[in-house]
């Protein structure tokens, strides 16, 4: 799908609320999506329960222990625990290493 086709805009209170597209276009959009660009709902819920820490959320979603993640990263379990604290702000190279260890894209850690 290169350009919008038959799009129906449904308004609520004078503002656009929904865009309805043909089913074929919807299917094409689904198949064009890169699954590494999305975050599963379960990860979002886990993130909320961990104070917003996506590293902890993804680790728990993937059922990996802190020790296992530490081994993959070549660091200590206590270093992983520090990374999972709310407010932790890793460097981009650290995010890349964590993403590789969790088999996700770095963008999914934001």
From TrEMBL:
Annotated Pfam families: HTH_3 (PF01381)
Highest taxon above the source species: Bacteria
Record-linked PROSITE patterns: HTH_CROC1
GO molecular-function term, one example from the UniProt record: DNA binding
Signal peptide: none
HTH cro/C1-type domain: residues covered: 55-109
SUPFAM superfamilies: lambda repressor-like DNA-binding domains
Record-given protein name: HTH cro/C1-type domain-containing protein
Record organism: Idiomarina zobellii
């Amino acid at each position: 799908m290169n350009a919008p086709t038959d799009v129906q805009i449904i308004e609520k209170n004078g503002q656009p609320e929904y865009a309805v597209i043909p089913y074929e276009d919807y299917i094409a959009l689904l198949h064009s999506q890169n699954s590494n660009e999305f975050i599963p709902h379960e990860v979002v819920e886990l993130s909320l329960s961990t104070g917003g820490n996506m590293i902890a959320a993804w680790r728990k979603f993937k059922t990996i222990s802190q020790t296992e993640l530490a081994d993959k990263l070549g660091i200590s379990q206590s270093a992983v625990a520090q990374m999972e604290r709310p407010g932790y702000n890793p460097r981009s190279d650290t995010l890349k290493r964590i993403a590789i260890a969790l088999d996700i894209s770095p963008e999914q850690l934001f």
